[in-house]
Amino acid sequence: MVDDLNPDVLVVGGGLIGLATAATLLERAPGTSVTVLERDVIGRGASRHSGAIDIPYFRTALHRQLVETSWAWHEARGAQATAYRRQVPMTWYVDPGADLQSHVATPLARGAPGAPPGWRSPDGVRELVGDAFVIDPEAWCHVLAQEVTRSGRGQVVEHTTAVALDERPRGATVTCADGRSYSAGHVVLTLGPWFPGWSERTREWSAARGLRTKRVFGLNIEVDASLRANAAVGWPGADIYFHPAHAGGGYRLSLRHDEWDVAPDAPHAMADIVLERASGFLDPLLGKGHWSVSGHRVFVDTYTPEFEPVIAPCMALGGRVTLATGTHGSGIRLAPGIAELTARTVLSSLEQTRGVA
Ligand SMILES: Cc1cc2nc3c(=O)[nH]c(=O)nc-3n(C[C@H](O)[C@H](O)[C@H](O)COP(=O)(O)OP(=O)(O)OC[C@H]3O[C@@H](n4cnc5c(N)ncnc54)[C@H](O)[C@@H]3O)c2cc1C
Prior knowledge:
Blueprint: E1 9-12, H1 16-28, E2 34-37, H2 46-49, E3 53-54, H3 61-77, E4 85-94, E5 109-110, E6 126-135, H4 137-150, E7 154-157, E8 162-168, E9 171-176, E10 181-184, E11 186-189, H5 200-209, E12 212-223, E13 232-235, E14 240-244, E15 251-255, H6 272-286, E16 291-303, E17 310-313, E18 321-325, H7 331-356
Parallel strand pairs: 1-2, 1-11, 2-7, 4-13, 11-18
Antiparallel strand pairs: 3-6, 4-6, 5-6, 8-9, 9-10, 12-15, 12-16, 13-14, 14-15, 17-18
Helix pairs in contact: 1-4, 1-7, 3-7
């Protein structure tokens, strides 16, 4: 049973990174109890706004490890994963001279059928074909929350905002806006884009480390019935990805447009330049008049100068506090890999504490 206010590990932030971390901790450490605190309801932060495409693309060695661990994590869950993740063939558009295969963790084929009939590739690119997946982040959050609570050692506490964190000799105490305090042997902060602005110390730490927030822009697209297919296209050189939604028949388009240091609670509007670039990509691909914008998703994610997540003790907040952030608009697809590394960091810290007790 979980001691309501004194779990072994307290995870603050019930987005996909926090929930995947809690589920992984419970799986890896059978004697450990875990509580997740979420200020809203689970999955209502950045995770809710994601498209979400799960591609095997990586930039660095750590990134590759996160991609491979994440794909293996879903595969190990078998049929359970089909509730929130389904396969979609992916056509990659590769610019002349660009080397894509050394950035993709699975083999790509040349000359395969490519994008569906009626979809016209951008001029001058090569086409390579491989696998991708689309995810329903909300459904996945609920699957993870069930895993946590069904373990009998985990709980998810919603509508509870953490406002302060104090280190104590063998753990840390988190105080919440409602006056309750949770004391744990270790605290994991998975606050997503709320982390940099959460407190004076996280502000200073983020500024020193170069951790920043940036807007992420997503469009919901409807496509004429004759052109609809279970197919995704990605163009890393242009940072454009177009793919079906997990369910409902619509499509998702993501386009890069840099607006830095944006607070997650600020109003978020679609930018005209993003709409213009959407037309510039989709008109040639599908034909003018054969697609339309049915909505948009604009929110914020965290970015690091190294282009990879931070999964590490956060000494500015104390030796018993681990941080998992810096998700670069890819936190859904990297969540299990980030969770595995975070769980490893937390469990080794707990071991050390128990060792000296
Ligand atoms: C438009 C858009 C499209 C995207 N598309 C993709 C995609 O296709 N593929 C992909 O992999 N990624 C995509 N992403 C990125 C992905 O959504 C994020 O990287 C991921 O959701 C980050 O998860 P998280 O758990 O770190 O953050 P969040 O989901 O934001 O979770 C943090 C949680 O902490 C909670 N919280 C904050 N402060 C407190 C507090 N004081 N006390 C308690 N709880 C608190 C928040 O309410 C929130 O639920 C996209 C993002 C956007 C915005």
